[in-house]
Structure formats: structure tokens, C-alpha cells
Specification:
single chain; about 270 residues; alpha/beta; Rossmann fold; Dihydrodipicolinate Reductase, domain 2; seven-stranded parallel sheet; about 35% helix; about 25% strand; binds nicotinamide-adenine-dinucleotide
Length: about 270
């Protein structure tokens, strides 16, 4: 049985992950963690997730280290917010716990710190801004299309629910980086995030990235390759959070035997090129 700790246990993703873990034969929830001094501390994690009692009490993140040690967790799954996740990853890796991280919105510095902690503590890690299987095929498709359509204007549009805190989405940024890398363009130079006012003519190098927020949209990503007289659009739409959770379950299974000290991608988890 893979022993799993979940941070953000009462969140939309965290509670869904707890529900799905309880349906697997080869893994179990051994710890459920919420924000420091959470008012939910002491509440049963199963009941909080809308299922039967699990016998695992939610604890506040101020007790993360002792909880990880006492629970014997082998994998920590984190879907929270970036600054909290950096600290959680630091503590979990220092306890020798493998990590599966879906939290988005890390700065370059925060991601560098995550990678350093994984390396220094020699644990397995999967960090991915989008764990949906179709999305990872979407990234692969972009990788193949970008060199073919290198002289087309490229624009990325993402849409998410009105509760999402970071923008553009981690998935949009990954799509942007995949394309920029394939085209040998400097991501710092070519990203244009929204446009307003007299912005001047579009350059052929720039890659536009635009964020739409509204209602209950789970996650849409469209990449437009626009040429003279035609355009090609590649679009992924997530209908339900369950698509991410299916990927999380695969990552939990993968990470205990993953190569230690490096951050694996969903490509590694899914065996994609
Ligand atoms: N990688 C993916 O496939 C994927 C898919 C969906 C969402 N996400 C990302 O996952 C994150 C969470 O999304 P959500 O919709 O579940 O958000 P949410 O706001 O519903 O849940 C986040 C939870 O984290 C808790 N939290 C905050 N700080 C904490 C800490 N220090 N320790 C423990 N818990 C803490 C909050 O109290 C909250 O319950 C976001 O960054 C989102 O972009 C990633």
C-alpha cells in the first residue's frame, strides 16, 4: 500500500484526490493537512471530502513535519498555493517523502528552490502544472506543430473558473514555454500578456497569452497558429476535475520508484516521448 499525505485536503482538488485514493486497492490516505491553524483541524478527512469516515483527522500545516513522520507517508500530494507549496515541499523532501505537486503559479525562483530541495534530499518528485492525460498529449502536439508553423502568428488563450487566483494558468505557461523552446525564442522576450491601448503592430516573434475568467469553467486552452489565409487551432477542454485526478493517481503510483533527485514530468509518468 502506498501511504499518501494530502495537503490542501479540504480544497477542490485535495478533497477529490482523497475520494479517489479511497477507491484504489494499492494506496491509502495516511495524513490530511490544511492551512496552518485551520479551523478544520480535528475534523475527519473523509467526512470533509464527502465520503465515509476515514479515521484520519485533518491537521494544520504547522504540524506538517511531525504528521509526516508519525504517519509514515511515502508520498505527499500538494494542490495548494505556490508560496505554501514551496514550504511544504521543503519540509516533505527533508523528511524523505516523495512529492507529487500540482500547485501552479510558482515563480522561477520558487521552482528552482523546489528542484534544489528534491535534489538535495534525493527523493522522487513529479511536478506538473497539468496532470490531465489529454493535456500532456496537447503539449506533445504543440511541440511537433511549432517547428512546422514557425512563421505563423501564435496566440494562446486560456479560460478558467472565477475562483482561480493565478493567471495565466500554469498550463498556458507550459504551452508557451514548449512553443518558445521549439522555436528558439527567449520566453522573457516574446511573451505578450494581454493587450490594451496603442500597442503597435504585432511582431512575428511575439507569442500572445490571454486569460479569461468566469463561472465554473474547469480549464480550456487554445493555441492559435494564424497564417495568411488560414489558421490552425489546437484546443483542449477539461470537462471535469476528475481528468486531473486520474493523472494524480498515476503520478502517486509512479513516484515511489521514480528516479531520485530529479523532478519527473507527466511525460515520464505517462510514458510519452
Ligand atoms: N496540476 C493540475 O493538474 C491542476 C489541476 C487543478 C488545479 N491545479 C492547481 O492546484 C491548486 C489548488 O487548486 P484548488 O482548485 O484545489 O484550490 P482550492 O483553493 O480549492 O484548494 C486549496 C487548498 O489548499 C489549502 N492550503 C493553503 N495553504 C496550505 C498549506 N500551507 N498547507 C495545507 N493546505 C493549504 C487551502 O486552505 C485550500 O483548502 C491551484 O494552484 C490550481 O491552479 C492544478
Amino acid at each position: 500500500m502506498i501511504k499518501v499525505a494530502v495537503t490542501g485536503a479540504a480544497g477542490r482538488m485535495g478533497s477529490g484526490i482523497i475520494r479517489r485514493i479511497t477507491q484504489q486497492d494499492d494506496m491509502e490516505v495516511v495524513a490530511a493537512i490544511e492551512i496552518p491553524n485551520s479551523p478544520l483541524a480535528g475534523k475527519d478527512a473523509g467526512l470533509q471530502a464527502g465520503i465515509d469516515e476515514l479515521g484520519i483527522e485533518i491537521v494544520g500545516a504547522e504540524k506538517l513535519e511531525e504528521t509526516l513522520k508519525a504517519s509514515g507517508a511515502e508520498v505527499l500530494v500538494d494542490f495548494t498555493i505556490a508560496p505554501a507549496a514551496v514550504e511544504t515541499i521543503r519540509i516533505a523532501t527533508s523528511c524523505g517523502v516523495n512529492v507529487v505537486v500540482g500547485t501552479t503559479g510558482f515563480s522561477d525562483e520558487q521552482m528552482a528552490e523546489n528542484i534544489k530541495n528534491v535534489k538535495e534530499n534525493n527523493v522522487g518528485a513529479v511536478i506538473s502544472s497539468n496532470m490531465a492525460i489529454g493535456v500532456n498529449v496537447f503539449f506533445n502536439t504543440l511541440k511537433k506543430l511549432a517547428p512546422l508553423l514557425y512563421d505563423y502568428d501564435i496566440e494562446i488563450i486560456e479560460a478558467h473558473h472565477n475562483q482561480k487566483k493565478d493567471a495565466p494558468s500554469g498550463t498556458a505557461m507550459t504551452a508557451f514555454e514548449v512553443i518558445a523552446n521549439e522555436l528558439d525564442r527567449d520566453p522573457e522576450e516574446v511573451g505578450v500578456y494581454g493587450r490594451k491601448g496603442l500597442v503597435g503592430k504585432r511582431t512575428s516573434e511575439e507569442i500572445g497569452v490571454h486569460a479569461v475568467r468566469g463561472g465554473d469553467i474547469v480549464g480550456d486552452h487554445t493555441v492559435m497558429f494564424v497564417g495568411e489565409g488560414e489558421r490552425l487551432e489546437v484546443k483542449h477542454q477539461a470537462h471535469t476535475r476528475e481528468v486531473f485526478i486520474a493523472g494524480v493517481i498515476r503520478a502517486i503510483r509512479y513516484v515511489p520508484a521514480a528516479e531520485k533527485g530529479i523532478v519527473s514530468s507527466m511525460n515520464d509518468v505517462l510514458g510519452l516521448e
